Task: structure prediction
Amino acid sequence: MKILLISVNRERSPYPVFPLGLAYLAGPLAMAGHSLELLDLCFEPDPVAAVAAAIERFAPAAVILSIRNIDNVTYPGSRSYLDGVREVVTACGGHAPVILGGSGFSIMPREVLAAVGGDFGVVGEGEEVLPRLLAALAQGEDVGLLPGVLVRGKDGHVLPHPVQLIGTPDRQLFSVERYSREGGMANLQTKRGCPFSCIYCTYPLLEGSRMRLRPIPDIIAEIRALRDGYGVSYLYFVDDIFNYPMDFAADLCRAMVAAELNVNWSAFINPGFVTPALLEAMVAAGCDAVEFGTEAGSPVMLRNLGKSFGVAEVRDASRFCRDLGVDFAHYILFGGPGECEATVRETFALMDEAGPTAVIAMTGIRIFPGTPLHRQALEEGVITPETSLLEPVFYLSAAIRDTLCDLVTEEAMKRKNWVAAGLEINISDAMLDALRHFPVRGPLWKLMKRLGKSRVKPM
Result:
């Protein structure tokens, strides 16, 4: 069959993100004998026209739409992407079955399918079930009993996926060089699943709570292919937590050193699983920056958010980074259950003590169904069972709901290393567009140390 793959993500802030999920599907589909064409809307000036042209030229037997996110999870400057997805589905014009998938779709599959149109949906990982779905469609079989498959207009539960092994993404159809050039890095994955219990997080829902590790030789081969085949010199590990399990992270770093890959990289890590020895191994393997999913600097808020570590671990992990000269950023989520002015100020104080290269702050926490935060929001009457979560809905502690944004703005403006996207503190689309004209390798927040003073709505 002729299959048109469409990446519908158009968000380029803070940088364009390579559609890794769709690349994971390309290999199994090609192995099943399908003829593939890719349309990546991230760089298309007129996405609707591009879709219509691809449909007319390629005449696919099926169209697969990958939805990375349904909104930018940013308050108060939130924006939904669903209208754009709906336009793409409409542009397909009923010429072929439209199959939706991706992490953004899988969070609320029935709601998204009803809202944007489409004929089928694949909930969760699609490497195994998608070729089976296409084969069943080609043979006119009932697809409703396939695991993870959702059929428009049919009720009933979606059958769960079996546990899947993680393969290697096939990037041949994609503009790897452009993503690397304009985004400053290439992304790759070493594991799936998350065993932790942060109250707002969708990773355990999307990937399961049992961690599945890729074979290290496969990861090394992928890095070498990115370096030699596409000229990539900087990587970003997209794992929810790179440094857990710690032994696996250390083994991977040693393998990277042994393979003499000579690439730099960064990753998202948990401050509770950092030791000087592990960080030294990461640096030896090319790591020059890390991002901590810290979320708060208040002991009360760390507990309320379900974090697996405390203030002492945040202090220690920060000190290890400073001692080794590794750039590091702490991500903060303000406004969760129990947040008040005192806990906000505790977080600012701890960040001052930690001395990171950058602090990336968000005000308000996006509520997604199935998370502990969703259940708490229902219990507190923040939302009702009838509340639609398709459009961005945020949890904001009642004690600070009316003053949080002003307080964060006031305090962040006193510090030159804070970024708050929703409040446009030291970040804006114009600023990011300007920065992309420079050959930046790695996360843009590394440039914060060059900032003279904080700015609201810079440039």
Observations:
- The chain has two domains: 2-151, 176-450.
